[in-house]
Amino acid sequence: MIELGLSRISRLLQQTPLSWKAIHIAGTNGKGSISAYLSHLLTADGIRCGRFTSPHLIDRWDCITIGESVVQESLFRHIEAQVKLRDQTLGIGASEFELLTATAFEIFNHERVEIGVVEVGMGGRLDATNILNNVLVSVIAKIGLDHQALLGNTIEEITREKAGILKPGVPCVVDGTNSPEVLSTLDARVKELGLTATYTNPNAPSDLSPSLGGVFRDLDLLPHQRANMCGAVSALKLAVPRVRPGSDVDSLIPQLSNVEWPGRLQKIVLNPLITRTEPVLLDGAHNAQSAEVLGQYVEQKLRSQGKNVTWVVAASRGKDVTSLFHSFIKPGDQVATTTFGPVDGMPWVKAAETEELAACVRSIPEIGEVKSFGDDILGALNWASGNAGGGSMAIAGSLYLVSDILRLLRDAQKDRL
Length: 417
What we know:
Blueprint: H1 7-12, E1 21-26, H2 31-44, E2 49-52, E3 64-66, E4 69-70, H3 73-90, H4 96-110, E5 115-119, E6 135-140, H5 148-151, H6 155-162, E7 172-174, H7 180-193, E8 197-199, H8 205-208, H9 212-219, H10 223-243, E9 266-268, E10 280-282, H11 288-301, E11 310-313, H12 321-325, E12 334-337, H13 354-362, E13 370-372, H14 377-388, E14 393-396, H15 399-416
Parallel strand pairs: 1-5, 1-6, 2-5, 6-7, 7-8, 10-14, 11-12, 11-14, 12-13
Antiparallel strand pairs: 2-3, 3-4, 9-10
Helix pairs in contact: 2-10, 3-4, 6-7
């Protein structure tokens, strides 16, 4: 169950002064990528950096990294146990995400982190991460409609919730490619608080850093990737001088070429999980905005000479699967629908029924073969691989499906040893 509010996390951490400074990131899409870029660059600069993102990808503790390495399971479980005991002793009744947030922050203290890169879980104003009180810079990534039941029904209401991380005296960076409605709502809050705000412009990367334009050209980036990189670099330029005066931030920018963010437009070989040796596109697009980005990428990269794509898809219950799937599945494509399994630490997350997903996909005009596999992910992968032959194959619709597939692949690789 999701319970927004700061009272419980405040009690959990009331005896734990945070010994590190933070970069706090909110938004609907791009938070994870910006976090990854920042963590990589800070570590490259010799700054001891912690990163907390959500949800986890394969194991519950991989949402916490220290210096680009996932925190040790033993340390995670030790500190988590202390946090849970505190919760029980004080009768707080904290939510799963609040317990996880407190665990991450305690681990950052334990590991003597200098800067913690912290991604908002949901919204911003009442998100558990908004307990942060020593923020170097706040970042607002791309905002779209998501979690309306909790955050508001309009883009302006959702934006106001996400703008709740902005704090007096703390400079902020805003993705300048946001819609006019989002930008005007953010601008009003920035002016109300009297903040110094940087609105990024990915069309002029050299204005931000002389070497950023070169990174854009070398990587052949899509617009949203450029926007996320600009957000990270802008935040870096505001944060680093406050902890390392005189540090040459511009010299770090070429390091962006080495950053990988699993589950986002990731090309992966699934052998030995299945026999296919050609790369498969793996993407956790799970809302209308990220699905549109995935559709643009597939159109440019996978549909050469009008070729079709074979998909394996799943989605969380309650998602608008029509706007989701219709953004990237096209006439002539073949589709396997499946479900993801229970999500560790997030028991409220449920997978949508595969027949419901199949019915949605079949409403696409001239769609190819559509087959429902229930919870048989491996069956869906093998069917899709066989139907695709050596052609394009992609997996999408949910980060939780991505997690299950990466976990299955890891297990298959272990069994092979």
